[in-house]
Amino acid sequence: MELLEAPPLRRFEWLAHGFSTRRPEQFNLSYSIGPSTARVTRNRRLVQHALGLPRGKVWQWVTLRQRHTDVIKVFPAEEARSLRRRSKEREPDGALKLVGDALITDSAGVLLAVQVADCLPILLMEPGRRVVAAVHAGWRGTAQRITEKTVGRMQLEFGCEPRRMRAAIGPGIHACCYEIGREVEEAFSGQFPYWEKLIRRVKPSPSQVHWQQRLYSPSPPTAERRPRPALTAPESEILHLDLVEANRRQLRAAGIPRGHIWASPLCTACRTDLLFSHRAEQGHTGRMMGVIGLRG
Questions:
Q1: Any long-range contacts for 135-140 (C-beta under 8 Å, 24+ apart)?
Q2: What is the pLDDT confidence band of residue 206, given thresholds at 50, 70 and 90?
Q3: Which segments within 90-175 are labelled E, that is strand?
Q4: pLDDT (0 to 100) of residue 133
Q5: Helix%, strand%, coil% for the chain, nearest 5
Q6: Which is higher by pLDDT, 56 or 141?
Q7: Is 276 found in the same domain as 162?
Q8: How far apart are CA 118 and CA 70, in angstroms?
């Protein structure tokens, strides 16, 4: 299988992380997509192996019932075992399934995972405190500042220092393909003073000339009836959202240095040969994962 890594995180040997792709064989990692539960379970085991985790050791997966919110689930090491015992919401492979859109822990042997197919998977870590986080950032979560809030919770709960933190923004839909409506523009304009730098305005091409036959002509029946040109009505401008830049700015606002932020150049809608895209494939697609954990 193909597992993408972020250069800023690769050098930490005690850290396991990666972004899955759709290869090989439509490598889906969501139980809610597709008919084969056994295949998803097998695929998740392959991800664990690709991360270089010991085959004999039991790793606890933690996933989310994602709702495009700013809800962040935090569980420190002293609570992780208790959570594993009492949590009733589990997936077929035993993964804990919580409700929210971000996960934070300092517990070793735990894999935090967010599922995506256009939204951004964002992985965070602080090497001094050895704290990790996984964020699911669509436009709604981004408008609610979920990425910035996750950094804040890492500070509050674990004493993390943003200047030490590293961030990796995985493959997602880029501004080239992310066409939005006015409601999204209004959501961002009401939240961010720099919102105009996040919205790209694309002017429509000049109305194309097409030819149509006259329905009625005053000319004599013998006259040659030629088609006439007719202009289509001009459309309003097209808006595109730069979701990557929006989250990059939130990370910078939270105090993470520019040089500690990495973003994948891959656009899911452009690269459906390699990545799943909910928008480009009209909803009929699988799910990838952004995964991060502490080896211990």
A1: 135/101, 135/102, 136/64, 136/66, 136/101, 136/102, 137/101, 137/172, 137/243, 137/247, 138/68, 138/243, 139/180, 139/184, 139/187, 139/241, 139/243, 140/68, 140/69, 140/187
A2: low
A3: 96-99, 102-105, 110-116, 120-126, 131-137, 166-169
A4: 98
A5: 25, 30, 45
A6: 141
A7: yes
A8: 18
- What's the confidence (pLDDT) of residue 237? 87
Q: Hey, which bits of 213-278 come out as E strands?
A: 228-231, 238-241, 261-263
Q: Predicted confidence band at 86 (pLDDT cuts at 50, 70, 90)?
A: low
Q: Which two tokens stand for residue 179?
A: 């066409």
Which pair of structure tokens corresponds to residue 289? 């994962």
User: Same domain, yes or no, for 184 and 252?
Assistant: no
State residue 254's pLDDT score. Answer: 98
262: helix, strand or coil: strand
Collect all residues with Cβ–Cβ distance below 8 Å to 8 and sequence separation of at least 6. Answer: 166, 167, 168, 260, 261, 262
Exposed, middle or buried: residue 237 (CB in 10 Å: 0-12, 13-18, 19+)?
exposed
Q: What is the CA radius of gyration of the chain?
A: 24
More confident residue, 234 or 258: 258
Average pLDDT over residues 220-230: 46
pLDDT for residue 279: 97
Its pTM stands at 0.89
- Nearest-angstrom CA–CA distance, 156 and 164: 15
CA-wise closest residue to 199 among 222, 214, 180? 180
Closest C-alpha among 119, 141, 151 to residue 253: 151
* pLDDT value of position 214: 41
CA 15 to chain centroid, in Å, comes to 21
Looking up residue 71, the CATH number of its domain turns out to be: 3.60.140.10
In a domain, 215, yes or no: no
Looking at the predicted structure, is the pLDDT value of residue 204 above 50?
A: yes
Whether residue 226 is contained in a domain is answered as no
Q: Which domain holds residue 11?
A: 3-172+243-294
Structural domains counted in the chain: 2
Contacts of 87 (CB under 8 A, 6+ apart): 96, 98
